[in-house]
Amino acid sequence: MSKVSGSAEVLCQCHLIIWGECTMSHRGTIEAVDKTLQDIRGNNKSMGGVTLVLSGDFRHALPIIPRRTRFDEIKACIKFSHPWNKIQKFPFNGDKCAEQFSTWLLQLGNGKVPFDGNGDINLAYIAIMVNSPPELKNRVFPDLNNNYNSHKWLCERAILAPKDKTCIYWYLYAKIYRHLTAAMLESFSRTNRPQDLFF
């Protein structure tokens, strides 16, 4: 990454980086991010002085090292990286929904989730099922015309989809973008890529 690139400029201006599911990352990635931020920001503090929030659960996922042993996977996890000793750890004390979801995931991982009549896992316990992309848009972004300007409202919702032009990502982006008015777009004028607002 060039120090004069748009990405480098964003990293120089940011105050917070949130890295979800970091436990799947190889220790080398966090070390590379640390060195990159120090270099781009011209700051020798850990992570170039940026607050980095790491979230994840080591029980759920460790980095996968092809054709290696479990010991190699453990040694590759971020707990063995140089920046790990400087990280302040906080236990997760989540809300009831997160607790229920966590319990369900543990049951799934332990093979204790009951199957339906077809031998499939019933996802209705953890997800709202929809039949079409427009229904998905309406469930995730209800009343978009009145709430588009609320950062809190927007931060409480997301549609996770792969960034692939041939997939649902672009379909959803087009459907949601079509609902935005000129006033909405003007309020988002600070971004160069409108699709980044939603995905």
From TrEMBL:
A Pfam family matched by this chain, by name? Answer: PIF1
Q: Which family does it belong to?
A: Belongs to the helicase family.
Substrates-to-products reaction catalysed: ATP + H2O = ADP + phosphate + H(+)
Name it.
ATP-dependent DNA helicase
Q: Does the keyword Nucleotide-binding apply?
A: yes
Q: Which organism is it from?
A: Octopus bimaculoides
Class of enzymatic activity (EC top level): isomerase
Record carries keyword Glycosyltransferase? no
Write out the GO MF terms: 5'-3' DNA helicase activity; ATP binding; ATP hydrolysis activity
- DNA helicase Pif1-like DEAD-box helicase domain location: 3-114
Ranges that cross the membrane:
none
- GO biological process, alphabetically ordered: DNA recombination; DNA repair; telomere maintenance
> InterPro entries, per this entry?
DNA_helicase_pif1-like_DEAD
Look up the EC number in the record and give it: 5.6.2.3
Write down the required cofactor(s).
Mg(2+)
Protein keywords: ATP-binding, DNA damage, DNA recombination, DNA repair, Helicase, Hydrolase, Nucleotide-binding
